[in-house]
Amino acid sequence: MALWARLSYELCQRAGDARALPWSRYNGQEVQVKQGKTSTLVWAPLLPDLPELKDMLDETPRVSTIIVIDEKTKQPYTIYNLSKAFNEVRDAAGLPTEYQARDMRRAGMDETGDAGATDDELRSLSGHKDRNVVHVYVKPNRRKAANALAKRRAHRSEKRTGK
Questions:
Q1: Does residue 101 sit in helix, strand or coil?
Q2: What is the rounded distance in angstroms from the CA atom of residue 115 to the CA atom of residue 129?
Q3: What is the per-residue pLDDT for 88?
Q4: Where do the domains of the chain lie?
Q5: 96-150 pLDDT per residue, tens
Q6: What is the spatial distance between Cα 127 and Cα 124, in angstroms, rounded to a whole number?
């Protein structure tokens, strides 16, 4: 369950896509996701600042062709069992009951937006084809506004200095 949560959150992928990710899509340096909903291919390099995810993948026994398996059944999760397991973890952690498995992706997308990623960068990671969908995941806030202004100031400075 922890590996699934990391894949969904860190790589900003749908719960079902992170759940069904085959080992053949991981080469030790990046994860390639073929999204079930759109068949879009998304490449997610495991940058040096994500050692936990890489370590989790490298330390996971390959007992199935699918990366994420149910700890109880030792089989790939069904979407029903994944939701049930997520709810059990959520409840044990004392998190609000409105949190759903799909919120892992949403939180990852929002954090990536907070970090200053452009719509095109977000779409490259999430696999969305339409820019209009990004707003569903990335909500405006003060930090994003500050990032926008900082980028604008940096752009102005570059224009003035010619660098």
A1: coil
A2: 21
A3: 95
A4: 2-161
A5: 999 999 999 999 998 888 888 888 888 888 888 887 888 787 777 887 788 778 8
A6: 6
**String of DSSP letters for 59-72:** HS---SSBS-B-TT
Q: pLDDT tens digits, residue range 15-39? A: 999 999 999 999 999 999 998 888 8
Q: Which residues contact 90 (CB under 8 A, 6 or more apart)?
A: 97, 99
Per-chain mean pLDDT for the chain? 88
User: Which tokens go with 11?
Assistant: 């790589």
Task: Give the CATH number of domain 2-161.
Answer: 1.10.443.10
Token pair, residue 61, equals: 């026994």
Q: Which residue has the higher pLDDT, 75 or 49?
A: 75
Output the pLDDT for position 33. Answer: 92
CA atoms within 13 A on the CB side of 136: 10
- Using the 8-state DSSP alphabet, how is residue 5 labeled? H
Query: Can you tell me the distance from the alpha carbon of 108 to that of 6, in angstroms, rounded to the nearest whole number?
Result: 10
> Which are the contacts of 16, defined by CB distance < 8 A and separation ≥ 6?
36, 37, 79, 82
Q: What is the largest CA-CA distance in the chain?
A: 62
